[in-house]
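Collaborator request, handled under Task 6.
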Amino acid sequence: MSNNKRSTEAEDHAVSSEASEKLKNKKYLKELATLHVELVKLQEWVRHHGLKV
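Structure tokens returned to the collaborator:
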């Protein structure tokens, strides 16, 4: 019985860890999209002003 309980706790930890990683990934992708928008705005501004980077 105790072995079964240990495997269940390990599985719960693995699922919790996986969910945490998905949340981190979701947050990362959201931030990446925000930064991409800012980069495009900067590129357009540079192009509009005829500048080079």
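The cover message to the collaborator said: "Residues 24 and 52 are 36 Å apart (CA to CA). The chain has a mean pLDDT of 85. Please let us know whether this matches your experimental observations."
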